[in-house]
Task: structure prediction
Amino acid sequence: MAISGIEIYKMLPKTNCKDCGFPTCMAFALKLAAKQVELSACPHVSEEAKAQLAASSEPPVRLITLESDGHKLEVGNEVVLFRHEKTFYNKPGFFFLVKDSEEPAAITARVKEIDAFAVNYVGIDLTVDGFAVKSEGEGAALAAAVEAVRAGTKRPLILIGDDPQVLSAGLGKLDGEKTLIATATPENWEAMTDLAVAHKASLVVTAGSLDELAELTPKIKEKGLPNLVLDPQVSNFNDGVVKNTILRRMALAKNFRPFGFPIIAYPYKAGVPEVEIALATQAITKYAGFIVLENFAPETFYGLLVLRENIYTDPQKPIQVQPGVYEINQPSPEAPVMVTTNFSITYFSVANEIESSGLPGFLLVADAEGMSVLTAWAAGNFDAEQIAKDVKRFGVEEKISHKSIILPGHVAVLSGELEEELPGWEIKVGPREAVDLPAYLKQVA
Ligand code: SF4
Result:
């Protein structure tokens, strides 16, 4: 639970000296509670209060970072139980499993195929996040498997095994990377912690019950390793919802520090591709930060990627495309100029229709704060002044040999004002729906 402004105020000097830039200690306390200022802005706070406030300002779910050559994945830092309360911040990472019992050449080929998979979804490239390498034998086998994986991908890795010595051989091939290793248990946690500390790795922790897990994570933290990930040992669908919800609820609603870490899910353990996918969907919606899969099929993985994207977009922020001039079907200076807003779905509907018409054109995407045409117009974010400003800002005139622009039919009402804002331009009114654009363009072409 976040600490309140009043509680913070009680720990401040209450002198209202203004050295922090605020008129009173109370004003500063309220800003600090809202995480809009740093505690260090008050030079007079006592060491004791500093320690207390620093502990309470720690994120309820620790941020875990995996990093390798040019790739970075951040997981954690979540502050709400339900996406509609605010937003979820850091998408869970998808990791595909390889085993060190497989032939190195086969590992490299599989990893290359999965690594290359990418789909563009409303302007965002969706891909896998990394790979998990599972040890099934000696350290030499794990080291060879890690090398084989690295021959096919640069993405971050999770190393899975229960023998610290074996894992050490794999980690030796990943110097300079931020890796996740699994798994510390009540039996091996000391050696696993030493290994993770030595390699600056994060560590997955598990135990036979959540009570035992709550006893184990503070011990590991005390030994100097704060970057932990929880494995609640999910064995079925019911278990997944119940255990992950308890962990996240305790971390967020009760500020229970032993559970203040991201969760890892292993849907691959189901052993049946369809069940694996279903468990992965549950893991996305119920709090997993790392999701380890085995069966790769583009048609099912696509669904997981899109689901994740939808759960982890801010419900209060529309998905936007960059405002600017988009050239479609290689337009010459004679090609028509159409205008629309920067709400992703609006942009893609219009751009797709122009593209599929086969006719060239310029699409001016105005900055309408990510709203659709009618909504933006009603909110005053898509008016003649804004369109004229964007015509100039994006240098439309320099790209064309005419002075004509096509407005969306829904805002035909703007044509008079736009004539005033763009003197000498011909303002045309296009169709109301994007789907009618190809026929319209054929008429005006
Ligand atoms: S600097 Fe510290 S003591 Fe001074 S007003 Fe700000 S919060 Fe209060």
Observations:
- The radius of gyration is 27 Å.
- Residues 12-13, 15-20, 22, 25, 28, 42, 44 surround iron/sulfur cluster (CB under 6 Å).
- The chain has a mean pLDDT of 93.
